[in-house]
Amino acid sequence: MSKIPNGHEIISLFESMYPKHLAMEGDKIGLQIGALNKPVQHVLIALDVTEEVVDEAIQLGANVIIAHHPLIFNPLKAIHTDKAYGRIIETCIKNDIAIYAAHTNVDVAKGGVNDLLAEALGLQNTEVLAPTYAEEMKKVVVFVPVTHAEEVRKALGDAGAGHIGNYSHCTFNSEGTGTFVPQEGTNPYIGETGQLERVEEVRIETIIPASLQRKVIKAMVTAHPYEEVAYDVYPLDNKGETLGLGKIGYLQEEMTLGQFAEHVKKSLDVKGARVVGDLNDKVRKVAVLGGDGNKYINQAKFKGADVYVTGDMYYHVAHDAMMLGLNIVDPGHNVEKVMKQGVQKQLQEKVDAKKFNAHIHASQLHTDPFTFV
After folding, report:
1. Are residues 318 and 230 located together in one domain of the fold?
2. Alpha carbons 110 and 211: distance in angstroms, whole number
3. Domain that holds residue 347
């Protein structure tokens, strides 16, 4: 029988994909309005929180809105309910709607805004444009009786240990003899109280991302037959997967800048785009960064991009790009709307895997304040 989750359980699933620690320093993420301790059957994924989006949530029966752009970015000095901003807050409180902001953590994380944009543009062999985070790695060593080594190895790997590149369940194993004396009050799996025991054991070594330490250790201890498990955790200088803002990769085929601009419009569902550069220039290597990517033109050029797709391009930064010889296609900030369908699908899959009775909805509203004429 399926269970109706509460808001904390929904957000826990969300943060397993988009952890807070990936957000840029000072970003205003997390719960902004309401509480998460109530049952949740409908969740709305939105780019922006507007009065219309809140009305959409009410119509759906959603009592959690997960928004990419924080509603509250600067400290509030007053809440005037006769103005739109105050009405949003008032309506959410009156209707028990929680607002949860997930901003740059969704930009940085795997499967987030920039991965979705790169996928929409058909980019291949992508890598991070501007690295912001490298996963801390640790080594776990555990001593297991030979009879249970395979079971413990599987538990470690299934919990996420031992990932090296495209390989999973990586371990190193060496055999030896373990010794111990069970004390009074113990219930040893092997041996008798007060007597020295010698057991043929396997030393299993593997690596883990620091973020998975609790999960991996719990799985390992659960699979281990001993009452007291002997294990060590070591910090490593090795760094794990690098994450960051933006992506850079290749189009399947070279095209002109003009053709590429049309490709961007069609792929990202926009009616117009600002272009910097000669429309006849040939482009194939593409950098893309959702939202405002003005400060990353140098990274795009340094990494060899023929063209940089980003929003909110400033006049003087566009001149800087011209001097760098970097073509620009600016389809606007609103192309981050790809996160609505992307996150909806990802979170619904997580919810279904848990057998929760909850429905995740992507907002159907267009919240771009700009109109191309």
Report:
1. no
2. 15
3. 7-102+337-362
